DNA sequence: GGGCTAAAGTTCGAGACATGAACATATTAC
DNA sequence: GTAATATGTTCATGTCTCGAACTTTAGCCC
């Protein structure tokens, strides 16, 4: 009989219930900071005593912070609880086509410090990671010893293999088939940056989707993010979860055929969405007529998304949106109404990302936070 | 302070752990019948004693059955456990365009008895339900008193509103805006059919997708089912869950625009997928050329699905497939390869439904079973 | 056939944990 | 100042899982 490590996947055992409740409390306070112990108990259907114990544990570990007393009427005032904004930080990294970025975020996703770095053409992967680590080191300087770096996520414009953190293909960087997550791990070690939860590598459209979903104003179940840049990609949040598909390629709409007789695409086919809707297409024809044609094709794409996935919100972002978003949006909305099912077009909102150029990196932070909170489920604490 | 009913949504309280473990055992035995207590314990990471207690409870309630001893080598032989195939049945109903169908299935999805009924044009909803209930009554006759009817699901070719069980629109039946689930409840009461779990109303493509996913040979996470009939619809199983979208309209691909200059569609737009890929299109041009054109357009649609969702399997079913499936399949595969991303086209299988005309109704049974097992989580037992 | 080994399933005491009632605490209302 | 009210804590109780010891039932070997 093989030696059997404590089965990690499944259900019960010592501490499962406690972990479940820890996780519930953390998740609830993440979404709705400022609740009191009593409110948590009511909300979660737990006994007040149980919540008190769990909260005490989490306070002890530095995960929660007790706020001021909140005089709310008759009776003893309650004490607001929230994730400790000071003690717990995550690093978000972004490699974009023409810049690198680092952000230090707290558990609420708020940016505490950040830095952007120029990036020349034909960047070297190892050098990029070095610069990111270097910049992070500086941002972390002088933060005090009671501050924990809870997680890290790197957002890249390319196809990521989710299991091992390989970067399969990043055409706009000229990279392919890199063990990027492994390299990242080595750089962190070299630069003496200790992260509690294993680092994460993720596609830029996916982090952006998760970021907008989490930090945006919409409390919805299904959201699609369209990343309009040199190429065209998308990230999907379905039933409140980031959707990867079976091989991590979900959302690759850049090469959906919109017109089999259309112009040739770098992928070898003709009339891919990317040939109509992208920075490249805009550069080729930056006129009002070009804009209208682009919006029309974008409408076709939106119709596919709306009819197939019935989302609450579709968010447009990326460099092209930075450039012409406000002009593009009304045309795209009209085109979507023209092509999509009436119900879908009526119920779904189409909006621009409220976070501009920072959308993807904010989402990377969110992903790191989620991974950390997830890991807390079965953790023995800090 | 308002009177507070035992919070149903959330976590813990008396018996939560036990319910979790009950649910785990049931789910595991559903997917892999014949496991022993020991194997379950190993599989789930539970103590043998715990599994024994839970299993004893479930045996008591008639949910599980203990099989013969399985001599497997040295040591005391184990006893196979499985969901009790005899004592627990569900009803699956289907209203199709030209027939009604009833199936009595056990918890493994196997059909024990069934009946098909002819259906004339312009069917009356109430009469349909009456005939279904009547037929069910006969199928149930003489089943013994220790047999429980655990659930019921009705599959319909139309748009369903998930919350209240309204049938919003079923163009091919000429029905719209019917409180079909409520009517169904009344009919059951009239015909003295007692079902333990609340009946379910679901779109035909969705039940079919779930059925193929569950009863098919593929053990996958993501599957799309295309229903090719008078119209064109699809059902999506994403991350092992049936996907509805935000308003229950996910998968409505019949009116995705494939060619803005195409023929007019009954929906008022031009060049909808349905105008190219459907029984109607085939009837209009049942030639080799027509077949090739249809396959080409189907390829466009498949490319959208494959690129956007990265599924493991796409299953084709419905009346059109019954008629020309084997001729259509190779052409559709070729077209998909022509239009989809290479990776997606290579990794995803495109197949015909192995269950033919019964795909949707088998899936309805599966949905009823899942609902019942789900309800067992917090149930106090039969 | 008898003893040994191996595996399945059961029994039982110990420990973890959620619960609810009683209690302490802090505020408003009068 | 006293009553009312709500928050948060303490503690005895009961549920449930766990692991170790034990029973049962088989194969293996002499």
Automatic annotation (TrEMBL), chains A, B:
**Domain of life assignment:** Bacteria
Q: Which SUPFAM superfamilies match?
A: Actin-like ATPase domain, Winged helix' DNA-binding domain
Which Gene3D superfamilies does the entry mention?
Answer: 3.30.420.40, Winged helix-like DNA-binding domain superfamily/Winged helix DNA-binding domain (1.10.10.10)
Task: Tell me the InterPro entries matching this sequence.
Answer: ATPase_NBD, Cro/C1-type_HTH, ROK, ROK_cs, WH-like_DNA-bd_sf, WH_DNA-bd_sf
PANTHER family xrefs: BIFUNCTIONAL UDP-N-ACETYLGLUCOSAMINE 2-EPIMERASE_N-ACETYLMANNOSAMINE KINASE (PTHR18964:SF149), ROK (REPRESSOR, ORF, KINASE) FAMILY (PTHR18964)
Q: Which family does it belong to?
A: Belongs to the ROK (NagC/XylR) family.
- What is the protein named? N-acetylglucosamine repressor
Taxonomic classification, please?
Bacteria, Thermotogati, Deinococcota, Deinococci, Thermales
């Amino acid at each position: 009989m093989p030696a059997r490590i404590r089965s990690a996947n499944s259900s019960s055992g010592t501490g499962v219930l406690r972990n479940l409740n820890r996780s519930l409390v953390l998740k609830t306070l993440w979404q709705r900071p400022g609740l009191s112990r009593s409110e948590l108990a009511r909300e979660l259907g737990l006994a007040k005593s149980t919540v008190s114990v769990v909260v005490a544990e989490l306070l002890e570990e530095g995960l929660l912070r007790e706020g001021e007393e909140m005089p709310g009427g008759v009776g003893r005032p309650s004490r607001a609880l929230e994730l400790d904004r000071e003690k717990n930080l995550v690093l978000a990294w972004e490699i974009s086509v023409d810049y690198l970025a680092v952000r230090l975020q707290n558990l609420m996703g708020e940016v505490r410090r950040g830095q952007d770095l120029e990036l020349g053409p034909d960047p070297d992967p190892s050098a990029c990671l070095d610069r990111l680590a270097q910049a992070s080191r500086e941002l972390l300087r002088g933060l005090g010893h009671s501050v924990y770096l809870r997680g890290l996520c790197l957002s890249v414009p390319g196809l990521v293999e989710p299991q091992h953190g390989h970067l399969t293909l990043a055409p706009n960087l000229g990279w392919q088939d890199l063990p990027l997550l492994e390299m990242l791990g080595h750089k962190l070690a070299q630069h003496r940056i200790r992260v509690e939860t294993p680092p994460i590598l993720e596609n830029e459209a996916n982090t952006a989707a998760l970021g907008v979903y989490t930090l945006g104003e919409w409390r919805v179940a299904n959201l699609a993010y369209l990343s309009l840049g040199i190429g065209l990609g998308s990230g999907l949040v379905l039933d409140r979860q980031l959707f990867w598909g079976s091989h991590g390629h979900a959302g690759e709409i850049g090469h959906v055929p919109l017109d089999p007789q259309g112009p040739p695409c770098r992928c070898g086919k003709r009339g891919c969405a990317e040939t109509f809707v992208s920075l490249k297409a805009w550069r080729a024809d930056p006129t009002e007529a070009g804009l209208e044609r682009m919006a029309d094709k974008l409408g076709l794409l939106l119709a596919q998304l709306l009819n197939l996935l019935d989302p609450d919100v579709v968010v447009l972002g990326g460099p092209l949106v930075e450039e012409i978003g406000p002009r593009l949006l009304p045309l795209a909305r009209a085109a979507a109404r023209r092509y999509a099912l009436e119900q879908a077009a009526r119920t779904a909102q189409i909006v621009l990302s409220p976070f501009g150029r920072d959308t993807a990196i904010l989402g990377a932070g969110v992903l790191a936070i989620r991974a950390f909170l997830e890991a807390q489920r079965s953790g023995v604490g800090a």
